[in-house]
Write the structure tokens for this entry.
Amino acid sequence: MDIGDLIEELERVAPPVYADEMDHGRIGLIIEGNPEIGTVACTLDVTPAVVREAIGRGFDLLVAHHTPLWNPVTAVRGSLASLLKDVLASGLNIYVMHTNFDQAPGGINDTLAGLLGFKDVKRMTLGVCGTCPIGEKEICRLLDAPLLAWGGARLPGRLAVVGGSGFDPGLIDEAVALGAAAFLSADLKHAVIRDSPLPLIEAPHYALEAPGMRRLAEEKGWFFIDDPPDVRVWT
């Protein structure tokens, strides 16, 4: 398949118009390789380990959630040089769908709602709110990750969830208006804890977003490359 035809398919899955302004220039085909695509892999992060596996397995396209080129590039050296050298030498294409896939139907947040068994789902500006029929232990099992709870969160109950870094005061207020009893996301800051009108539940960033990319791979018959950070709980 020509890369242009596959890009059209990916844009139907996660239309670029859904992307936040911060993603301008950071989504789509960010590294161009060989124009003919035979095999495709999905991943969350474009890490050296992911690139090695993608190249080693002979994939032509890597579809990622997070771009490896977030900041403007003014010098190519060190780890970035090593990563780009391998990608460019292999002809591997890298395509990124970030906040457009967060908000797309069937994307990151819809996947979380389905995984956790939400009922009566309401869409938020970013994220979803629904009735969660399971408790914290089952959520940990399904996400394969630990949780940190602040403010007396209790489940089952009405839960708002935002994949990735979603602890924004505006989103929390939106969740309150939708009847949420708690708010689940990643990368929680102390000041947000202190000011939140809702109990907050923090999960690892990877655990909340990898399921959406895995689901995409399964639906398309592509390969998912799993590379979670090494998270350990010390008590």
Observations:
- The longest strand covers residues 40-45.
- The chain has a mean pLDDT of 96.
